[in-house]
């Protein structure tokens, strides 16, 4: 079987799709939430359907989504959409799913929504998942160093570095690590060294 790769969405197409998901009241609630996670955080649907309500973190000031370390902040409009959805998730009215922690509970007991079905539904409303995810991660890589994107979104650092090179990003000299730590006294510069 030959895989067909669609080019990533342009930044304008990605933002248009995001705006439509956040404002169209006629789209079923689960689709904007899943679509926003794809369009903002470049997450594959196989991972999105495995998220639980425990992956949505309230830190007192903001709503965060635990995809990697640290958890990623959710913009205010998307956060309110997510919280409204959590309060009224689909497939929670059956006896077997009432205590489900899946963010996207499926119709079958204790199972999450099927990623292939979610993909078909998102494509039907104009969000091509693979192209949208590709656009989202490339935009992240233009704004942040590849190791930071890898940690925050749960990607492998080699994947983000490869994508950064493909997009022509400028973070090639970023040194990962904790730069806030003090240097040992013997290696610290003194006033006469500078």
Description:
- Helix content is 44%, strand content 4%.
- Helix 6 crosses helix 8 (157-167) and helix 7 crosses helix 8.
- It has helices spanning 11-23, 30-41, 45-48, 76-87, 115-124, 129-143, 146-153, 157-167, and strands at residues 56-58, 63-65, 72-73.
- It is globular, with a radius of gyration of 20 Å.
- The chain has a three-stranded antiparallel sheet with strand order 1-2-3, with no helix packed on it.
- With 194 residues, the protein is mainly alpha-helical.
- It is built from eight helices and three strands; from the N terminus they run αααβββααααα.
Structural class estimated from helices and strands: mainly alpha
Give me the side-by-side strand order of the main sheet.
1-2-3
The helix count comes to: 8
Helix content: 40-55%
Biggest β-sheet description: 3 strands, antiparallel
Number of strands: 3
Mean pLDDT: 81
What gap, in angstroms, lies between the N and C termini? 62 Å
Ranges where pLDDT stays below 50 over 5 or more residues in a row are 183-194
- What is the beta-strand fraction? under 5%
Overall body shape: globular
Q: If you compute it from the alpha carbons, what radius of gyration comes out, rounded to the nearest whole angstrom?
A: 20 Å
Query: What's the SSE pattern?
Result: HHHEEEHHHHH
